[in-house]
Amino acid sequence: MQIWIILAHSYSQGISKSGKIPWICKKDMSFMKSITTAPGLKNGLLMGRKTFESIGRILPNRENIIVSSQKLESSAHIVESISAGLEKGRELELDILWVFGGAIIYEAFLTDPQFSQLIDGFIITTTPERPCDTFIQTNIYKFIEQHQYTSIYPPRVLERVADGIYELSIYSRLPSLREEWDPIVRSLDS
To answer: What residues of the chain score a pLDDT lower than 50?
Structure first.
């Protein structure tokens, strides 16, 4: 099972405001949906309870694994820890487990060696600055450099807006992208 972090953040690594994403980039949302439901692969999303509740539903065509110490009424897979979430992903025989947020889950993968050593890659959309109250504290790009991930897909501008750009980057320890992702990533060029 490969483990990939997928996230969007502002220039200052803000990821949300009052539990909601403070920007809209339709091309990014479409890409995220396409890549996490890639045909021919069994995909899963690992997220915290607050992220799941902010989405408000199970995301279809993916196994939804929710880390929560609280009891939840949902047909998603509810686990009590990130370790249990990883085990659930293996039990479900996932090809890709997408680390989907929120900040506590991202930070655990970026700071705890038992999780950070498992990361195969990152798909990151950098967004223009927006008011946020939740941030990734660890410098993601320093982590990527220190752990010797390489850019395996040149950064692509998804959208230009008055105050900046939405730019997608893909970094990995693996030598190439999964072939199942090729048409999805190439569609960004059109």
So the answer is: none
User: Which of the four CATH numbers 3.40.430.10, 3.40.190.170, 3.40.50.800, 3.30.70.100 does domain 2-189 have?
Assistant: 3.40.430.10
What angle is formed at CA 185 by the lines to CA 5 and CA 166, rounded to 5 degrees?
70
pTM, two decimals, is 0.95
Where is 160: in which H helix or E strand? strand 150-161
Instruction: Annotate 34-91 with DSSP letters as a single string.
Output: HHHT-TTS-EEEEEEHHHHHHHTSPPTTSEEEEE-SS---SSSEEESSHHHHHHHHHH
For the stretch 127-142, pLDDT in tens is 999 999 999 999 999 9
Residue 188: the pLDDT is 81
